[in-house]
Every structure is written in C-alpha cells, then in structure tokens.
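Notebook entry, structure prediction.
Reason for the run: the old model in the group folder had no record of what sequence produced it. Starting over properly, with the input documented here first.
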Amino acid sequence: MSVPANCHFQTAKAEKYWPFSEPFNFIHSRLLALGMRDWSCYFGRCFDNLTPTGWIDAQEFHFRMICDDGSAGPDSALIRWSHLVQKAVAKRGLDTALSDKLKRSLRKQGFAKDEAGKRLGGLQRQNFLVALDGVSMPLFTKELEWTKEEVEAFLRQVRKNLDVMGKHVLVRMTVHCAQRPAETQH
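New structure, fully documented this time:
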C-alpha cells in the first residue's frame, strides 16, 4: 500500500485518554459497535482532536439483516447470522442498532451536517466478508458457546448464501461524515 508523505496513522483506545499533541484533519472509525460503550465520550474526543474544518468518518453496521422482497426467509443463514450476532452482542450490553443514533450523536457534539453521505454497497459487501470471521468466532464461541467447527460450518453457509443470486438480503449501513465548524468550540 502506498501512503502519501503527508498522511500519518495513529491509534489510541477510543474511550480512554488520547495522548495526541496535534489535532487531526481526518478521523476514521468503523465497526466500533461491537465494543464501544460511551459514544458521547468518543465523539467528544474526536471533536476536541480535529482541526477546525476537520472531518470524522464514522461507519457502523445496523446488524439486523432484512429481506425486503421475500426472496430470503428467516431460515436464511445470513439472516440467522445477523440475529445471532445481535443476541451475542446484547449479552455484552452493547447496542447493535446504534447506527440509527450516530447522526444525532455527532450533532450533539457540535459537528456540522453531513453534506455528502456515501453508501457504497459493493465495498460494504467486501467489508462484510473481511469482518465475518473476526466478528463471528469470538461472539459465537464465547457468548453462544458454539464450537469452532460449528462456527466455521455455519460461516460457510453464510458465505454461500451471500453469493446466491435472487436472494436480496439487506443490511443497513449508516455512514456519517461530519465536518467540525471553523469557528466553534466544544
């Protein structure tokens, strides 16, 4: 991967103290719903650590998959997977439907309106496939007490269902980009 000379990556625990000495032009986060408990704290830290006119890009799944045309029923492995993820994450006390609240949370912290929200289905499918094992294995084995072999067999069904033409299973993906206003304080 080629990284421009003026691009640098830094990481920190989202809900802990951020040790950064200079503000950022861009903060990106994705799939924090499986572990984030204090969104207000996180968005406050983002706001405080962005340059004036800097951007935050927060991408979160709405983990409830649906089929809007009846081509995939509740027996679909994809739909069943989404219900199992919701069940396992709820045991951790987390909110899998928080993507509906991101926009409101960003506005509450002082971010400006999202002028150009981006939804890219093909890339999201790729993101889903990349995240499938990492999301499923720890949740299903620890919280649902499945064996590794049971999870692997089930995920083979999920991947197979994902490639079946004519079954239109949807997952809402909310992407909110917000710009920090130039002349406001948090």
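Summary: Strands lie at 24-30, 50-67, 169-179.
The old model has been moved to the deprecated folder.
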